[in-house]
């Protein structure tokens, strides 16, 4: 964590941030060229005495002669209704033109330098009441058109376009481009001609009947707070930006802190933290003495983030500090007034975004100082689909936007959309406040353009302005609380004065309910049990009751079908059976050694294994002794066991020989089975484990023998001390590593993973989805289950530094993003379950990784149980499979993102479950009745008999294929639906030089080189498969190359 004092200026993190600033700093030479272009424009405008720039401002015939289009979407009827005593327009030399640094308004990019010219129009063009009904905006637009015509004629090689910033349709600017240089021109009037009272939120400067016709006349007395603030900024723009520049111009450390904060707000998509607000807030902190130029850059950043983390709704401050007469804004929870007290620089912050500002500021404070976090905090932009756990899409038709409640404080359709979002936000916060931690709204058009502001429209000055859309789609993103799925919306106590408001909001459908603790409260019921559909029902209710919208206009875009996640009830049943087993194992009498620990190693016990026939059901058969003999020609259903490890009390009587230990362990299993049978539990002892059937869940219990572990380590140490050769040491070392992987690392890792599965249900959901997805793409043989869980676990660790996914969908998309974006060749993936590795430790790990890179596997995942990072990835995936995995993850991720913002929802479950065999050279279709995972459960459970467990003929066949032909081909299949096996011959096995060691499976081609003998390989496969193989075919061919009937 970062300290907040000046001593942090020398830290590696600060140096990294300074380097980041330097790399993204705007080119000084380019800025000089932009300033040169700006000076040319200033000279042209000051010296201009154009002809033809005059006429009645309502007619605008002279504009067409100049080849300039009028940039406002106001109808002739609206302009005709504007009443002013100054109807004649002519170009008058501006009162002044100021060159401003545009980074005050927008975040500059390293490749793009913007400078803003603020042109103060002559006040002779204005009447004292031109603030009404857009008259000022119309005349301002005419001055902008004249400026465009002058620049077009006087400045060579420039392209001119109008731009609407921040979705403001009434206040466009002019953008002048010359190659890679760009200058923005804004027109202002200065504040002298209008009284400040006209900017107050309670005043209405735009009558709805003027903007929307006679139907809105009843709303003419309504205030227009948003349009007032827009007008105030336009009029005070020059003085406001000059004041900010003068206060920061000689404070380079504060400027760097501001730039860093701007980049942070941009990467976090905090649209309310505009460059203008960040500068104003820093000046406010400067006046308060919380930051100063003498402190280093990072100290100022920390102070600002701390103040933002503690920002409360209703804050009213001025950049100058204390000032009398300031009032809270009615349209924003934060009021940061400029010197004039007219412009609220915090006006873009909404109530919903204030919650995100708190969360992101707090999270960032905990990450400062972490070298691995600098890039993600200040450089890598976080996409909107990646911030939240749940997304819904809402379609707004023209009928909705024509609602009478949307005519006040609006002129354009986009204004109506923004007002609808404000109304809907208030209603959602009232109806779902207890269900969400934070949430936000994005317009699909902006989302597709990846815009941070509400909208940027740009068009050529000679072209008509694009018509406004009549239909919009918006995305609602939610980060849920624990009450997200609750079937009840809790209201006030029955005797509270808030009952009337609660009942009114829910349109009289709320009712009184008495709870077990004797509370009597108002509630709104949405069902009997928790359900993911509840939030959808609540928003649907709001849309129907308040906006008369059809429920079909709302769709949930991140709902994943239970087919991809498994059944929770079955997982609970397994957990209860394990609890019984643990109690029984500790209570069995007559054992030579008592059981001290029971470790849940199986993924079934943490809910991370797809639920395919977990329970010991059978198809029927003949009982012979304690064994069940299946009916002829009918294979048993695949029934996996739940693997459990136990530890015994210490004993010195195990002996020192492998055979003696093995015999004693088997004898213990026999005693354990006898003891469990006395407890009326079905148990069968084998040479290597004891199998126990509890509530039709079969557990495979294995002893972790500490004595055996010590003996294996001693054997390796003895060989090393005796100076044995590497060839003699390696077999003993290999046996030790296998033992430690199975009984130490896997047991410890299972414990760590179980620690994530318990508090984070999304963890198990995501692992299930990943396993299904990997299976559907036929990568099951190449990606170890622990590798999958470690990839998912990386998104649930270090929770103080990043948000923890609360839905399986969000976690799934993050894991796919990790697979596609992580640089596997140059960096290990570090998963720190204990949050105990500091930057120094991580740096040593990465340095060790780079030094050993040539001998490490393609995918390295470092965790607390495996600091080398290759225990579970040593054999797979290889480079080819890793590239395949990355490609598939990229395709799937694009599909999931597309589903959020596309017009019609995609059946994600169907798409993710669809298998394709076109990529393979040969496909082996299997006989379905012989595939145990495809067999259906029939008959009844057999009491007193042990079912056949872990019997999977396809897995056994695949093991044989890899053993005999794995050096020649890849074998792909879906473990959870193994209907076929895809064969892809390895291309690097063709064209080899003749060698005795490579003759197997090869033949010589016409050039005398070795190529894979595919006929020989396929003949061997047919012999090995026997009755399991149904047919062989080459994908893409209409006719099958070969067909074998069972």
Key terms for this structure?
single chain; 1046 residues; alpha+beta; Poly(a)-polymerase, middle domain; 5-stranded mixed sheet; 33 strands; disordered C terminus
What does this structure look like?
The chain has a 6-stranded mixed beta sheet with strand order 3-4-7-6-5-12, with helices on both faces. The chain has a 5-stranded mixed beta sheet with strand order 18-21-24-23-22, sandwiched between helices. The protein is an alpha+beta fold and 1046 residues long. 39% of the residues lie in helices and 16% in strands. The chain starts with 11 loop residues before the first helix and ends with a strand. It is elongated and about 110 Å long. Mean pLDDT is 88; it is low at 1-9, 450-454 and 1038-1046.
Radius of gyration: 36 Å
Order of strands, widest sheet: 3-4-7-6-5-12
Q: What's the structural domain tally? A: 6
Question: Which percent range fits the helix content?
Answer: 25-40%
Low-confidence stretches: 1-9, 450-454, 1038-1046
Number of helices: 29
What fraction of residues sit in β-strands?
A: 15-25%
Round the mean pLDDT to the nearest integer and report it.
Answer: 88
The largest sheet is: 6 strands, mixed
Class by SSE composition: alpha+beta
Instruction: State the total count of DSSP E strands.
Output: 33
State the separation between the terminal residues, measured CA to CA: 66 Å
Shape: elongated
Oligomer: single chain
Quick structural gist:
The protein is of the alpha+beta class. It contains 29 helices and 33 strands.
What is the secondary structure topology, with strand pairs?
Elements: H1 12-24, H2 28-47, E1 54-56, H3 61-66, H4 76-80, E2 88-90, E3 96-101, E4 114-120, H5 135-154, E5 159-164, E6 173-178, E7 181-188, H6 208-212, H7 225-248, H8 252-267, H9 275-288, H10 297-309, E8 315-318, E9 334-337, H11 351-367, H12 374-378, E10 390-396, H13 398-401, H14 413-432, E11 436-443, H15 444-449, E12 457-460, E13 472-480, E14 488-493, H16 499-505, E15 511-514, E16 520-525, H17 534-547, E17 554-556, H18 568-587, E18 595-600, E19 621-624, E20 627-630, E21 642-648, H19 658-678, E22 682-685, E23 690-694, E24 697-703, H20 706-721, H21 726-757, H22 761-776, H23 785-793, H24 808-821, E25 829-831, H25 839-852, E26 861-863, H26 879-901, H27 908-913, E27 922-926, H28 953-965, E28 969-972, E29 980-985, E30 1002-1004, E31 1010-1012, H29 1014-1025, E32 1029-1033, E33 1042-1043
Parallel strand pairs: 4-7, 8-9, 21-24, 25-26
Antiparallel strand pairs: 1-2, 3-4, 5-6, 5-12, 6-7, 10-13, 10-17, 11-13, 14-16, 15-16, 18-21, 19-20, 22-23, 23-24, 27-29, 27-32, 28-29, 30-31, 32-33
Helix pairs in contact: 8-9, 8-10, 10-11, 14-17, 20-21, 21-23, 22-23, 22-24, 24-26, 28-29
């Amino acid at each position: 964590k970062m300290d907040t004092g000046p001593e942090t200026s020398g830290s590696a993190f600060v140096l990294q941030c300074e380097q980041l600033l330097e790399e993204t700093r705007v080119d000084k030479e380019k800025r000089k060229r932009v300033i040169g272009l700006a000076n040319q424009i200033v000279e042209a405008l000051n010296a201009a005495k154009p002809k033809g720039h005059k006429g009645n401002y309502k007619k605008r015939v002279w504009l067409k002669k100049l080849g300039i289009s009028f940039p406002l979407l106001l109808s002739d009827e609206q302009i005709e209704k504007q009443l002013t005593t100054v109807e004649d327009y002519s170009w008058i030399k501006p009162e002044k033109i100021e060159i401003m640094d545009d980074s005050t308004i927008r975040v500059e990019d390293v490749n793009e330098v913007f400078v803003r010219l603020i042109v103060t129009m002559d006040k002779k063009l204005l009447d004292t009441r031109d603030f009404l009904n857009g008259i000022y905006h119309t005349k301002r637009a005419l001055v902008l058109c004249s400026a465009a015509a002058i620049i077009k004629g006087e400045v060579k090689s420039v392209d001119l376009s109008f731009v609407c910033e921040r979705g403001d349709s009434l206040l466009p600017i002019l953008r002048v481009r010359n190659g890679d240089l760009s200058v923005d021109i804004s027109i202002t009037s200065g504040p002298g001609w209008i009284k400040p009272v006209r900017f107050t939120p309670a005043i209405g400067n735009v009558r709805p009947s003027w903007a929307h016709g006679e139907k809105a006349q009843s709303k003419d007395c309504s205030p227009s707070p948003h349009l007032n603030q827009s007008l105030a900024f336009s009029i005070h723009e020059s003085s406001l930006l000059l004041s900010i520049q003068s206060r920061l111009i000689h404070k380079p450390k504060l400027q760097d802190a501001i730039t860093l904060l701007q980049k942070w707000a941009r990467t976090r998509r905090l649209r309310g933290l505009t460059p203008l607000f960040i500068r104003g807030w820093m000046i406010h902190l400067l006046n308060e003495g919380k930051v100063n130029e003498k402190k280093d850059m990072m100290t100022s950043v920390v102070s600002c983030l701390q103040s933002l983390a503690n920002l409360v709704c209703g804050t009213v401050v001025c950049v100058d500090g204390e000032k009398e007469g300031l009032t809270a804004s009615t349209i924003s929870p934060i009021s940061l007034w400029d010197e004039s007290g007219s412009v609220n620089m915090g006006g873009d912050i909404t109530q919903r975004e204030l919650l995100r500002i708190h969360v992101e500021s707090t999270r960032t404070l905990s990450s400062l100082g972490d070298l691995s976090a600098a890039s993600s905090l200040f450089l890598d932009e976080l996409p909107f689909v990646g911030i939240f756990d749940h997304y819904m899409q809402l379609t707004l038709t023209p009928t909705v936007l024509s609602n009478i409640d949307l005519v006040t404080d609006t002129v354009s359709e986009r204004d109506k959309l923004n007002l609808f979002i404000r109304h809907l936000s208030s209603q959602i916060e009232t109806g779902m406040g207890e269900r969400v931690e934070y949430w936000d709204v994005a317009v699909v058009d902006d989302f597709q353009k990846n815009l941070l502001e509400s909208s940027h429209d740009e068009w050529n000055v000679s072209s008509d302005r694009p018509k406004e859309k009549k239909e919009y789609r918006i995305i609602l993103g939610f980060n849920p609380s624990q009450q997200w799925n609750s079937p009840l919306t809790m209201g006030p106590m029955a005797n509270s004065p808030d009952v009337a408001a609660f009942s009114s909001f829910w349109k009289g459908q709320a009712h009184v309910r008495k709870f077990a603790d004797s509370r009597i409260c108002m509630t709104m019921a949405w069902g009997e049990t928790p359900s993911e559909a509840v939030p959808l029902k609540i928003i649907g209710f709001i849309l129907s009751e308040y906006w008369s919208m059809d429920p079909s206009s709302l769709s949930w875009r991140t709902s994943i079908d239970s087919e991809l996640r498994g059944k929770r009830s079955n997982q609970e049943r397994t957990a209860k059976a394990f609890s019984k087993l643990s109690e029984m194992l500790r209570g069995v009498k007559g054992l030579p050694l008592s059981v001290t620990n029971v470790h849940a190693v199986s993924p079934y016990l943490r809910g991370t294994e797809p639920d395919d026939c977990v329970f010991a059901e059978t198809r029927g058969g003949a009982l012979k002794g304690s064994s069940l003999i299946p009916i002829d020609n009918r294979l048993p259903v695949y029934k996996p066991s739940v693997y459990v490890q136990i530890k015994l009390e210490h004993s010195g009587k195990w002996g020192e020989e492998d055979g003696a230990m093995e015999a004693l362990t088997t004898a213990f299993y026999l005693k354990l089975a006898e003891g469990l049978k006395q407890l009326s539990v079905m148990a069968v002892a084998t040479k290597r484990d004891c199998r126990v059937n509890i509530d039709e869940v079969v557990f495979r219990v294995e002893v972790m023998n500490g004595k055996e572990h010590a003996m294996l380590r001693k054997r390796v140490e003895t060989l090393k001390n005796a100076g044995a050769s590497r060839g003699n040491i390696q077999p003993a070392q290999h046996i030790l590593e296998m033992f430690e992987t199975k009984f130490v690392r896997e047991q410890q890792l299972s414990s760590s993973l179980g620690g994530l599965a318990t508090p984070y249900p999304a963890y198990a959901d995501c692992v299930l989805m990943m396993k299904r997805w990997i299976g559907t793409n036929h990568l099951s043989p190449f990606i170890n289950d622990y590798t999958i869980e470690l990839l998912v676990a990386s998104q649930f660790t270090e929770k103080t530094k990043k948000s923890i996914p609360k839905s399986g969908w969000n976690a799934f998309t993050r894991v796919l993003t990790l697979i596609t974006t992580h640089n596997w060749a140059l960096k290990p993936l570090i998963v720190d379950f204990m949050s105990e590795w500091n930057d120094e430790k991580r740096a040593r790990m990465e340095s060790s990784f780079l030094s050993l890179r040539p001998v490490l596997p393609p995918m390295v995942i470092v965790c607390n149980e495996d600091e080398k990072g290759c225990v579970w990835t040593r054999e797979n995936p290889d480079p080819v499979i890793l590239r395949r995995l990355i490609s598939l993850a990229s395709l799937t991720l694009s599909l999931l993102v597309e589903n959020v913002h596309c017009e019609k929802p995609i059946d994600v479950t169907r798409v993710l479950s669809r298998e394709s065999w076109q990529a393979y050279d040969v496909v082996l279709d299997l006989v379905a009745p012989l595939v145990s995972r495809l067999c259906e459960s029939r008959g009844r459970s057999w009491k007193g008999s042990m079912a056949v467990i872990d019997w999977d003929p396809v897995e056994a066949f695949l093991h044989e294929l890899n053993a005999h032909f794995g050096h020649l081909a890849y074998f792909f299949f879906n473990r959870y639906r193994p209907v076929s096996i895809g064969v892809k011959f390895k291309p690097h096995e063709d064209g080899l030089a003749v060698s005795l060691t490579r003759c197997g499976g090869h033949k010589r081609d016409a050039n005398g080189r070795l190529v894979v003998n595919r006929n020989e390989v396929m003949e061997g496969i047919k012999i090995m498969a026997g009755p399991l193989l149904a047919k062989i075919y080459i994908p893409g061919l209409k006719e099958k190359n070969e067909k074998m009937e069972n």
